[in-house]
Amino acid sequence: MKYVLSHVDLRVRDRARAIAFYDAILGALGFSKSAGEEEWTTYSSTPEGEEPESNMWFGFTVDPDMIPGPTRVAFAAQACEDVDRVTTVALEVGAANIEGPDYDYGPQYYAVFFDDPDGNKLEVCCYGPQAQAAS
């Protein structure tokens, strides 16, 4: 399978705070911390039945002067229950500007939106037939 996206490298101001946040959020989606140094940390998840792809990861680099932009990073969930679980975790770890979870984008798109502690915009979504809203 050819992948279009290799990795996402976000900027955060405080590494310890970001690790606590992303350990909880990404852990709820089955990611594990795969690497880390003083200035950067990465997470990866390998779908069941697939070989690990070492070049597919999400991470962050410390930049004390970062300013969050309008870009949103969305993580795909396998089921609506995953979106609900992340919503609960987001509330527990102090995510800001939580919206949802809901079907705002249609009956087959269930998502929650929130910001990390540095203002980076995130989303966790489940779409397609597995996200079909009950009629």
Give a written overview of the molecule:
Helix content is 19%, strand content 36%. With 135 residues, it is an alpha/beta fold. It has a single domain (7-131), classed as 2,3-Dihydroxybiphenyl 1,2-Dioxygenase, domain 1 (Roll). The longest helix has 13 residues, at 15-27.
Poorly predicted residue ranges: none
Number of helices: 2
CATH fold category name? 2,3-Dihydroxybiphenyl 1,2-Dioxygenase, domain 1
What is the tally of beta strands? 8
Mean pLDDT: 89
Written as H for each helix and E for each strand, in order along the chain, the element string is EHEEEEHEEE
The residue fraction in helices comes out at 10-25%
CATH superfamily: 2,3-Dihydroxybiphenyl 1,2-Dioxygenase, domain 1
By helix and strand content, what is the structural category? alpha/beta
Beta-strand proportion: 35-45%
Q: How many domains would you count in the coordinates?
A: 1
Q: How is the biggest beta sheet arranged?
A: 4 strands, mixed
Which strand order do you get reading across the main beta sheet?
Answer: 1-4-3-2
- Broad shape: globular
